[in-house]
Write a structure and sequence with these properties.
Radius of gyration: 28 Å
Helix content: 25-40%
Shape: globular
Low-confidence stretches: 1-11
Strand content: 15-25%
CATH topology of the largest domain: Aldehyde Oxidoreductase, domain 4
Number of domains: 3
Number of helices: 20
Mean pLDDT: 95
CATH architecture of the largest domain: 2-Layer Sandwich
Strand order of the largest sheet: 3-6-1-14-11-12-13
Length: 784
Amino acid sequence: MMAMREGTDTPSRHGISQPVRRREDLRLLTGRGCYGDDVNMQGQAWAAFLRSDHAHGILRALDTEAARRAPGVIGVFTGEDLRAAGVGPQLRLPLRGFTLDRDVPTPRPALAQDRVRYVGEPIALVVAETAAQAADAVALIVAEIDPLPAVTDVEEAVAPGAPRLWPAAEDNMAIRWNSGGNPEIDRAFAGAAHVVEMRLVNSRLFASPIEPRSFVARHDSAADRLEWITPSQGSEYMLRVLCDQIFHVPDERIHIRTHDVGGGFGVKEQPYPEDIAVLHACRVVGRPIKWRASRSENMLSDSHARDAVIHAALALDEQGRFLAVRAHVLAAMGAYFACNGPNASIRNTSYGLPLVYRTPLSHTSVDCVMTNTQPIGPYRGAGREQAAYIVERLVEEAARRLGIDRVEIRRRNLIPAAAIPYKTPSGRLYDSGEFEAVLDKALALADWNGFPARRKASAERGLIRGQGLSCFLENVGGAPHEGAFIRFTEDGSVLLVVATQAQGQGHETTFPQIVADRLGLPYDQVVLKQGDSTDKPAGFATVGSRSTIMAGSALANTCTLVVEKGRKAAAHLLEVAEADIEFAHGEFRVAGTDRVIGLLDLAARLREAGPLPEDVPASLDSNGDYTAPDMHFPNGCHVAEVELDPETGRVTLVSYVAVDDVGTMINPMVVHGQVQGGVAQGLGQALMEHIRYDENGQFLTASLMDYALPRAGDLPTIETDFHPVPSPKNPLGVKGAGECGVTGSLPALMNAIADALAGAGADPLIDMPATPERIWRALRAAKV
């Protein structure tokens, strides 16, 4: 029995490591995307929220009568209504593998109950026929709040006599964690020839996704099931919070769908109070309800990020070799723990020390502090950028103080390729990497040795030029299990189903590339499905640079299952022993003959075959998975050059080079874009972005008129290159790429600014964001 060969497309043109144009871009760029606000339901009502204008206070009473009588109003809901209905508070997710010295819960209600703790906290929900009617009715609600003293600064929050947010959180510290007392650390610092100490600030940010949150929800009373169409980073994450914490229902009672997502960066991981309140209201009013946040409301309601003060130190011997590194992180958490709030500073920062350097000893302690501010959640980097910032600022300052060349001090301490696999003092096992080769490639691409001439040319124009370097490593992956489905459909396409969710990463392109390559299929016939909680494999979400590592590897393993099934089925149809069947280029062939059947033809034949022997699969549809044995470790070296204008303090990034090892690149074009986007976000934090509150807890940066974001003109051409060393931990050899740009750029940019300041005789220890005012003041203090 022999069949025609399948297809005319050449899989190698669209397979792994090929720069295939993103197939989703044509749809998105021509206005055919489907984002949160594009979805409407027949008969939908609209939601609006009353928010606290006090940073801290006792909620004495809510007068909602006028709002209930207002035109178009269908329902008004308060925290007491939700409490009476058994709607639970939101709690942080477990931090597995860490023993906490203190752990104070901060239950977060969907609508404030008894007390308000930050400006913007939702107090009441109005549901009305139109968005305008809902907003008008909100203005009629009178909230009686007795103001209490507030504290918004993380260092002030732990000072004696500071206002306390939670009675059980002494000194406002709700979590205390220590990586373990080790007398050797103290001895290493006491006996070190040199100790470099620094106070660093990881400034408070907002992720600023291009799409503010907007969703629609309804309740099917017959099935007693909620349907929620919302932008998310993965439905499983949402389900776990809603089903386990909030509504206490089985998974099948909540159906979550996500279509296109206009950026996530961490802020669309979790359900928010607005989501919970509207889902409850749907059950009560019996109507679909839509909520659409304005940009300012989004900045008030979404998680903020970073906001930490770090005291760090590096011990070195006489030759400048690293003996020990330690860091104490005072991490602001906001008024409540977000679902994943403390994990970034505790897990990701501590796992990241001491980056790519041979450092025998490492110690991290983290105090998670409650402040009268919007809760802190993960944002691109999520603590990995903090580890890189700590170590690389220390290394740069050590080189300056010890009079050692910045490249040389790194070379003396880099982990050599021959030493890998390498066990770090934080317990991580680096499985692959060539750190010095990455450094060399970056230095050559940046023309490092030509910098003095460029600095001289800048000085002739009245500008101060600085050069910064960062060698970094990330620990990524997390949530170590992910599944995948591969289905062969009647129309001849191959459907991939995953639990991860794209928000701009290009999964509709890269995941089909993996399967087209592994199975030798026409790329155009491989289609990705995501975003439906009722049809997904076991999995988690797109967070922490894990999607290609986890879901991509699950797809690769599922391809192996497809081939195993195909051999059995082909052997039956071709009437030979299974051992005689070979598979290559999308075909099953009888070894040594021209008898062949294509994979897609085989799938179609099985659908039509009728009853088959018990040992022959009825379908090639397969469900596979992948479990990661440990974290993965992308790494890189970034070089930045800046010019400072001493008259205005303006910082201009004049060149940027990034060389990264992300393991196997499924689509190099996509990876280039990921790194460049991350660098842009790093520049935003380093130079301009900063969430600010006043002394009373009022939010000062609630619009893009007040909160600066980088523009295209702020960036030079970013030169990106790669030095891929595949990871042996997964079948694809990938390591993760989504956060390299921001993790490498923060220390590279700030080291470049410090170099420029030091070269001008000014204090190089400047905090982010390095605004023109801060630069100008630093230079004026040095009388430059």
